[in-house]
Amino acid sequence: MSVTIKDIAKETGFSVATVSRVLSDKTGFFSQQTAAIINETAAKLGYKKNMAATELVTQKSNVVAVIVNSTKTNFSDQIINGIQKKADEAEKRVIILYAGDRDERSQRIALSTALERPILGILLLSVDLFPSNLAILTSSNIPFYFISISFKDTMLNYIASDDQEIGYQATNYLISQGHKNIGIAGLNIENSAHTGALRFKGYQKALREAGIVFKSDWLQTGDYSYESGVTALQNYYLKKDITAVIAASDLVGIGILNECNRLKINVPAELSILTTDGTSLCELVRPQLSSITQDFYRMGYLSTTYLINNTQNNAYTNIAISQRQSVKSLNKIDH
Amino acid sequence: MSVTIKDIAKETGFSVATVSRVLSDKTGFFSQQTAAIINETAAKLGYKKNMAATELVTQKSNVVAVIVNSTKTNFSDQIINGIQKKADEAEKRVIILYAGDRDERSQRIALSTALERPILGILLLSVDLFPSNLAILTSSNIPFYFISISFKDTMLNYIASDDQEIGYQATNYLISQGHKNIGIAGLNIENSAHTGALRFKGYQKALREAGIVFKSDWLQTGDYSYESGVTALQNYYLKKDITAVIAASDLVGIGILNECNRLKINVPAELSILTTDGTSLCELVRPQLSSITQDFYRMGYLSTTYLINNTQNNAYTNIAISQRQSVKSLNKIDH
DNA sequence: CTGAAAGCGCTTACAG
DNA sequence: CTGAAAGCGCTTACAG
């Protein structure tokens, strides 16, 4: 059907071995003249190398597989850009696979699609693998890295933000702006090793260091969704206790913001919002959402670097406060 | 390295042929007992089929390659969901390739990555191919479909909205709400065959039918970006001529909205906004943006259906007005 | 600098 | 129901 090196060999009179050598540029094993003829003929015939065949014989691959949630994780673009950049620099290719929305079967299909062909390794983009699927992965002998999710278990490689630091720094920032009654909303605290629990721990630490006594209704758990933000604010509204809230994601922050809008609560005059992530969504809404911003691009770049160099390692990327319009300083007034 | 059918053959005493037959489930060519033994051994050994080898010998593939812009086209998720759904139903796999942001080289790399391995076909997700890259594609003999982009050239297959209808229906809707001075903003009119030009044509047709004389400053061209919206509104602000504007995308609409916010123009009291696309962004901002909504999910689903069935065809998917909060009816007042 | 040959992991007529 | 053999498109020692 499509043209192969055999066709080129026939056309030029050289052997397939020679054709293969010039086409894969094994410099020094052929004369300039031969190369010219073969390359020309390849172009003329519209030759496209069949990488599947190459990968089969060389037993190695230049493609990294990225598995992402189809969930609206609005930061995945940034991570993928970072991955793409590093892959490009290293002359690797990247293919992206959707793993559905926390669906065991979809995850398994995405995993199989990756595992059933020659690949360099797998990058899991904030996908929380079901145990059964993690088992498939670990038993495959293919290197893999989690991005934007961290683990206690140091057998698993991850590149993420330090979630405890996120909680700690976010809270400290709000305290530095004069807030004392600070909510934390939209995060999932259940799994003791994970994101939510760590952030909450950092939050409590900052409170403690500032001598603030935590009240249980300051914590409004959720699933990082817009709806979590809406619900959280409704609960806060009942108590009218807090002056600032840390949202677990930008979407949670927007949920809170919009519900404030509906209930005629002025942000930031009556309630300050500090959101987590700092994606472009923060600048789309009014007032713009201040955030504790994660370096997603860097996560992508770094994880790909590790994968390519086969560095079995974990790493934290930087976090920083981005001041926009949704946090009010109480200090000026207090003074 | 990893376990092959040869290993299973050795382990079970059957030939690789038999192993192959049961593992690829060529029903009727083996006994239940044999199957049981082989499947068991495969599981025990952690066998993973090497699809690259299979594809090499069968000369066909079950993977559809989707090429997307890394540009913030915030509707691509919906399209991909539709693709994924249909692919799943047909037992096909999908891999996604990023083609950068209107970058010739990135496009070429994405294309090569797809073309250099066995695939079923290619779906181009609102990527405006450079001529050189289109040439590569067409000469490859692999079926491909454009999604969310239409062409005059009927040699190219596309699944998209009817852009002239978008312009026409959007304008008619605004006219039905009593608006007469209607802007259209953020679209690119240059390439005569494309999206922007068609929408503008539909817009003009609706105006004409309503006996409204178009004024040239009602058209503010752009590139479908947030910034286009901001700039457009600044220009409108100078003339204070229009009561409603059709934004070329949700981001354009938000750019207009936020600039209104800055200039203390009340939406929709002083200016109505009808945005194009109708993604989730419309419901994130306040007031929520009314839109002429495209059926992106369906585009994905339909194009994948065509690709799998090898239907050489074009199709338009439905469009509809989604009333939210950003369009004011002038009729009540007029009455 | 070039070619003949073996082999990567699979599938599938052909024969039995 | 099962096996021996050829072959998919490539690469790479080995020989010359």
TrEMBL record, chains A, B:
GO molecular function, one term: transcription cis-regulatory region binding
KW Acetylation (keyword) present: no
Record domain HTH lacI-type: where: 3-58
Gene3D superfamilies: 3.40.50.2300, lambda repressor-like DNA-binding domains
InterPro entries assigned to the protein according to its UniProt record, in alphabetical order: HTH_LacI, Lambda_DNA-bd_dom_sf, Peripla_BP/Lac1_sug-bd_dom, Peripla_BP_I
Keywords on record: DNA-binding, Transcription, Transcription regulation
Iron keyword on record: no
Pfam families: LacI (PF00356), Peripla_BP_1 (PF00532)
Matching PANTHER family: HTH-TYPE TRANSCRIPTIONAL REGULATOR GALS, LACI-RELATED TRANSCRIPTIONAL REPRESSOR
Protein name, entry field: Transcriptional regulator
Source species of the chain: Liquorilactobacillus hordei DSM 19519
Upper lineage: Bacteria, Bacillati, Bacillota, Bacilli, Lactobacillales
